[in-house]
Amino acid sequence: MSETSTRSRPTERTSERKTDEKVEHEETKTDVCPECGGGLVTDSERGETVCGECGLVVEEDEIDPGPEWRAFDAAEKDQKSRVGAPTTNMMHDKGLSTNIGWQDKDAYGNSLSSRQREKMQRLRTWNERFRTRDSKERNLKQALGEIDRMASALGLPENVRETASVIYRRALDENLLPGRSIEGVATASLYAAARQAGNPRSLDEIERVSRIGRMELTRTYRYVVRELNLEVQPADPESYVPRFVSDLELNEEVSRRARELVDSARKEGVLSGKSPVGIAAAAIYAAALLSNERVTQGEISEVADISEVTIRNRYKELLEAKSVDGTRVQ
């Protein structure tokens, strides 16, 4: 018994000595120079800590924990920070899961053998199965993929896709899908999101890229807006003007004059009950004539996807509402 206790004493003394040395080292790490007592300055370029009075190098070869890039504002700093991909509502798992790449290559870029390719394919299959564990996630995955496909075909920005994904998630959580198709609710969500974001698309444009008919789209859209209490303002003709002007390759003066025509028509009450797409197309046609730009009713009709008769009727109503610059347009 005494022999065992005697052997353990040197080990206890050694551990106590190491602890004392660690504490002593931590106490000596101060912001004061050990030679002259002056203040220490950190040189991040050389990785050194030096005394500002006598120039003594206290520490060298320090590790810089900061980033290797520079940022000049908060937005640029958030954009350059590397802390993993941000979460997004446009993916059913919000982008938190991992994916196995489709390239059958190793870390050095060499092609895998046939046996390894089969193994990777099985891993991809199981990975997809684990990512969608229940019917709700499979539903969400299909719907968000449909929203992304339609938004890409319509040229809608990312904020519209994000809003549409949130609307669909709400509809799924509140059990609005029974009796309705996934494509129908997804299309209605995208249509509502585009109008909320001030970047609307007409029903004809939505119907062209969707897998459902116009009647189902309008019926599902009204149902989703009513049940979710979405605040969707009536489409403004001015929101269509920049896109149509860009597609027709007209100048900024045409866009400005078209907005003035729409504004004057709004004040006169001409817009009530009229299609905003038709008003926008007619305003562009009138503004192009006033700006001496060569554009035909057929070209505008093709871009706006409305008939030339509608353009002519709305065109006359806009000119009657207000004569721009006192010029009479034939």
UniProtKB/TrEMBL annotation:
Residues 86-98 have a biased composition (Polar residues). Sequence repeats lie at residues 145-228, 239-320. Residues 1-46, 75-98 are annotated as: Disordered. Pfam families: TFIIB (PF00382), Zn_Ribbon_TF (PF08271). Zn(2+) binds at C33, C36, C51, C54. Belongs to the TFIIB family. Stabilizes TBP binding to an archaeal box-A promoter. Also responsible for recruiting RNA polymerase II to the pre-initiation complex (DNA-TBP-TFIIB). This is Transcription initiation factor IIB. It comes from Halorhabdus utahensis (strain DSM 12940 / JCM 11049 / AX-2). The lineage of its organism: Archaea, Methanobacteriati, Methanobacteriota, Stenosarchaea group, Halobacteria.
